């Protein structure tokens, strides 16, 4: 799969890998949900949005949501993108997604810096065909380390 990786808007090679996965399995409804998108410019679904997919972005920073609403005003106005500001927890994720849509979607991308695994375990509102979840490459397989769940966990930027 790595030979198919390339970066257009994603942080690493996700754009190319996602493209190759859907080349192989096809799409159903071309819908995505991504949370933890910051301002949307470096995300796993921006390329898909610009290719005509429909989706939901959820972001915990009000500042980033304002930027999304400005930069992607056309996509929001034509109904291809919904941007929602909310701090995501295992307790609220199904409600946040469910008000946008339920059932099968093509792609779910999770990047919330700490509670990713715990939130993923609670998702029932949608049934994604492909899931992208952030991991920490400092812990290579076969290590399976999961951070303790804290609903109030916030990533503290060190740069």
Specify the number of helices.
6
Q: Whole-number radius of gyration?
A: 15 Å
Strands, total number: 5
Main sheet specs? 5 strands, parallel
Q: Provide the structure class.
A: alpha/beta
Q: Sum up the overall morphology in one term.
A: globular
Biggest sheet, spatial arrangement of strands: 3-2-1-4-5
Distance between the termini: 32 Å
- The CATH superfamily of the domain at 28-133 appears as Vaccinia Virus protein VP39
Average pLDDT, rounded to a whole number, is 90
CATH class of the domain at 28-133: Alpha Beta
CATH architecture of the domain at 28-133: 3-Layer(aba) Sandwich
What multimeric state do the chains show? single chain
Runs with pLDDT <50, length 5+?
none
